[in-house]
Amino acid sequence: MLITFVILYLLLSIGLGVFAATKVHKTRDYINAGRRLPLFVVVSMVFATWFGAETVLGIPATFIEEDLAGLVSDPFGASLCLILFGLFFARKLYRFNLLTIVDFYRQRYDRKVEFVTGIAITLSYLGWVSAQITALGLVFNILSDGLISQPMGIVLGAAVVLVYTLLGGMWAVAVTTTFQMIIIVLGLFYVAWLLADHVGGVMPVIEHASSNDKFNFWPALNSVAIIAFISGLLTMGFGSIPQQDVFQRANAAKSENVAVWGTVLGGIAYFLFAAVPIYLAYSAHLLDPSMVAHFLEEDAQKILPSLVLGHLPMMAQVIFFGALLAVIMSTASGTLLAPSVTLSENVIKPWLLQGDTSDAHMLKMTRIVVAVFAVLVTLYALWALDSDMGIHQMVENAYKVTLVVAFVPLVAGLYWSRATTIGAYTAIIFGLITWLPMEFIAPEGEGLMPPQFVGFLFAIVGMVIGSLLSKPQMQHFN
Question: Which of 40, 214, 402, 447 is most buried, by CB atoms within 10 Å?
Answer without folding.
Answer: 402
